[in-house]
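Example record

One chain of 133 residues, shown exactly as stored in the release files.
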Amino acid sequence: MANIDHNYGMENKPSPLLLIVDDSRMSRMLIRAIVADSRPEWRISEAISGDEALLAIEKECPDFVSMDVNMPGISGLEAAGRIRMRHPETRIALCTANIQESTREAAARAGVHFVAKPITAQSVADAIAFFEA
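Predicted structure tokens for this chain:
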């Protein structure tokens, strides 16, 4: 189940919400730690699959999504496409170790930003720059 940290801004306006979708606990922990360090005001939730992400989004639509590709159930690309159809304002970064050109092209067709794994401070900074652009 999605776990949301609530960290509201000083104006009682919710801080941006980032949903991290990855079946790798280590990847989720790394992304969370790096984002929490550079954007402590952001709220962060997690999902372990595309299906769980779609359920979480029904409860609260995130501002940003970090999405893995290869996960149990529907793929990250399919989940991203469904999110984009219902919530086109949500910015999605596809964070994947699948760096083949076909994956990059599929990300572009889905309207999501491509970020290559491994998860590093630089790759997360790339995703954050896209989110905030």
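Notes: Residues 25-38 form the longest helix (14 residues).
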